[in-house]
Amino acid sequence: MTDSLRITVDDFRKRMEKGEDFVVIDTRNPQEWGNSDQKIPEAIRVSADSIDQTLSRIPKDKPIVTYCT
Hints:
Layout lengths: L8 H9 L5 E4 L3 H6 L8 E2 L5 H4 L9 E4 L2
C-alpha cells in the first residue's frame, strides 16, 4: 500500500494512459450523477445509501479510485 490515499486528477490520467488498471467508483449523489455529462467509462455507480448492496460487485484485485464532485 502506498503512503498516500489521495491521487490528483493529473496523476490518475497519467497512470491510466500508461495502462494501469483501476476500479473506478463514482460516489456522486443521484442528482449530480444524473445531471452530469461527464462519466468515466466502466465506473461503478455507488450511492452512499446502497454501498452494502454494491460491495460484492467491486473487484478486490485492483487499486480502487473513488470520485465525487
